[in-house]
């Protein structure tokens, strides 16, 4: 039997061993490059029971994607063995994400009579680090960051005992033979796990900031309910307004912080243990300014539980250990250097981290779970199976970067990397590529590399330097649509795709961002409609200044009130930008839906610069959720264009007349939804399709999705959105892989017949 999927590092071989012995079968099991291989000998009825029970009784953390069974010759085994892993060919096995500490280990951790009482690295085959400690495949202890610690007699006995849940648990250790904790303060270095924990908790209770080493990198922690501590963290980290995540002691504490639907609670307590965004029950302005949501997660490491057990505040800010815009620190030497002037103390765990892995962020959305950042607990799992035979690397976009490596048709999406306009993140991007290519032993001479069509993207420029056998480009917004279809395995399904975001390089060289397509992954997507073009003064800089972006939209609208006067008070940047538009100097055509939302936010009072991506749109959505308005401002769809002029005119006039900004924001949001729904129904009828795909960063707006679902419920249309990868640019690489791989595969036949040009493939 050959079993493929997430079947290494999740206790699968010990499970197979016990199942075989229970059925009185002989043979062996081993980790192979493509999964787990099993050889079985025994009575026919026992073999059939084993085959039936294998997928039904597999460990909860295992994800079986495929089982191949064939008849083998009898080799005369008289017992069942776990064999050493074999290393014969290119690996294709799915690597297990890191797992939260299980209930059995947690019980031992808090039991004073247990040998691993209060040991911060307790784990077993059902829990603990996986992706963050694996150095090479197959997954065995010598190929993990635990290679330096030799098991003592106690741990070795459990590791060798088929009846023990630590049977072949690769990171197993105890207080005698394993790694420990160290606390670094300006006054010195403290050793001893219990002493370190007590001191760290004392600091947290005294409003200090402590850097804490986690599974995939360092966190910066402080008391979430102490406003002074949170504001100090903001000042030191240079993170002015972007919300922080909270680690809640338990589910009961989480429920006092956020409103949890049954499905949101299921996400919060799932094996991935992500940060869950949900409506706030308490307003913690220092933690999450100007928003009605909080991001909360539950403990997932033994250390988290030990901190709370020792008396840490019941709600801790737990944010990435870095300066804003830099990647999370995961190497001890880097953390000690970069976090020393942010944290009052640094809690170092001795076990090395193989690669940085941020916390994942999800939301219980109206169309189902929505991943906003895909990392710990999910990465680097296979999210789709593509009908391609050659290895493929898709390098993603420059914002919220993640890459996709396709091996044997399995699309492995990396952890969140970050924004590549910052040099440390660019280095992390390069490390991630090298890491996955090396892990899966892909040969560059076999590889197809897919990149964004933007000629100046850092991901594109770096990808073009790599020694891949072949390279091709995929247009940004088509990749958004393809990412959804890849998740559904719908290669030939014709759809109307709506791709809304802030920016992307269009076929004509302009800045796209409000696009409608018709077609399929196999046949390609034709642009059939778009937002009415506006001018973007100053290019990318307009994304950081809503009033600057507004100038390019509002210049097309007559009869507006004086926007520099009450109640608008637009600063001089607006008039400077307007002058650029009128003179056609340093302006660029755009159909960006993201900038449309920025314009509306500016009209309603967000006239300062943003401090993080999407801030103005988030502010606008939070404003709109506070109103019960049922009105929708006009956003007409005519001749393939959604005309923003009546929409923005209504916003400006109603604000000038003194209408409540919350009511205006709600009417704007509902107007956008109604205009989109009208366009979708028209285009679906014209294209004779009944499936609609929504993707792009604008669709992180939950209120917009809620309105659209309501408007389209009574139609015959089926709506698909991203579920496994982010709808923002974190999902772009999957769409690149799908379009680049499948278009290249299908076009090779057409090219041989002279039916397709290279340009057609580049922008497919």
Secondary-structure blueprint:
Blueprint: E1 2-6, H1 12-22, E2 26-32, E3 35-41, H2 44-56, E4 63-68, E5 80-82, H3 103-109, H4 153-160, E6 181-185, E7 188-191, H5 193-205, E8 210-213, E9 218-223, H6 227-237, E10 245-248, H7 251-257, H8 262-268, E11 275-279, E12 293-297, H9 302-309, E13 315-320, H10 332-338, E14 345-349, E15 361-365, E16 368-373, E17 382-385, E18 392-394, E19 404-407, E20 410-413, H11 423-439, E21 448-452, H12 458-465, E22 470-474, H13 476-488, E23 495-505, E24 511-520, E25 524-531, E26 534-537, H14 546-554, H15 572-583, E27 587-590, H16 593-603, H17 615-624, E28 637-638, E29 641-642, H18 645-656, H19 661-687, E30 691-695, H20 702-712, E31 718-721, H21 732-752, H22 758-762
Parallel strand pairs: 2-5, 8-14, 10-12, 11-15, 18-21, 21-22, 23-30, 25-29, 30-31
Antiparallel strand pairs: 1-3, 1-4, 2-3, 6-7, 6-14, 8-9, 9-13, 10-13, 11-12, 15-16, 17-20, 18-19, 19-20, 23-24, 24-25, 26-27, 28-29
Helix pairs in contact: 13-21, 14-15, 14-16, 16-17, 17-19, 18-19, 19-20
